[in-house]
Amino acid sequence: MIMNELEVAEMQRKIDEGILLAQERLIKRAKHDNLTLVVARNGQVVELSAEEL
């Protein structure tokens, strides 16, 4: 099955929403458990407390 542009755009929107939801949940969990997260920021890999995000 080949998807048209509208279907591809809709799928991309759903993927983007899913990624944002997962990121929000990860940060919330890290804050709750007082953990740090390793992220890429300005081309550097840094370790941050969840409170800094």
Task: Describe the model.
Strand 1 (36-41) and strand 2 form a beta hairpin. Strands 1-2 form a two-stranded antiparallel sheet. It has one domain. 53% of the residues lie in helices and 23% in strands. The termini are far apart. It contains 1 helix and 2 strands. It has one helix at 5-32, and strands at residues 36-41, 44-49. The chain is an alpha+beta fold and 53 residues long.
Q: Give the oligomeric state.
A: single chain
Structural class of the helix and strand makeup? alpha+beta
Count of the separate structural domains: 1
Please state how the strands of the largest beta sheet are arranged side by side: 1-2
Percent helix range: 40-55%
Using only C-alpha atoms, the radius of gyration works out to 16 Å
Series of H and E elements: HEE
What is the general shape?
A: elongated
Tally of DSSP helical segments: 1
